[in-house]
Amino acid sequence: MQNERTQNRIVAILSDVILILYFLFALFPLVWMVLVSLKSGPELFTTKFIFTPTIENYVAILFGDARAAAGVVARQEFPRNFMNSLIASSGAVLISLVVGVPAAYALARYKFRGKEDLAFTFLSFRFAPELVVIIPLSVIYRQLGLYDTYFGIMWVYQLVTLPLLIWVLRSYFEDISPDIEQAAMIDGYSWWHVFFKILMPLVRPGLAAAALLAFIFAWNNFMFPLVLGGSNVQTVTVASLGYISSAQGFFNRMAAASVLASLPQIILALSIQRYLIRGLSFGAVKG
Amino acid sequence: MAELRLEHIYKTYKGGVEAVKDLNLTVRDGEFLALLGPSGCGKTSTLRMIVGLEEITRGEMYIGNRLVNKLEPNQRNVALAFETYALYPPLSVFDNIAFCLRARSVPKPEISQRVKQVADMLDITDILDRKPAELGGGQKQRISLARALVRDPDVFLMDEPLSHLDAAQRSHMRVELKRLHAQTGRTTILVTHDQLEAVAMAQRIAVMNFGVLQQVGTFDEIYNRPVNEFVAGFIGEPPMNFLPATPVREDGTFLLVAADNSFRIRVPESLHERLERSGAKKVDVGIRPIHLEVVDQPADALEEIDATVATFESLGEEGQLAAVVGTQTVLAVTSPLLRLDRSDAVKLRLRPDRIHLFDAATQAAI
Question: Which CATH number fits domain A76-280: 1.10.3720.10, 3.40.50.970, 1.25.40.10, 3.30.565.10?
Answer without folding.
Answer: 1.10.3720.10
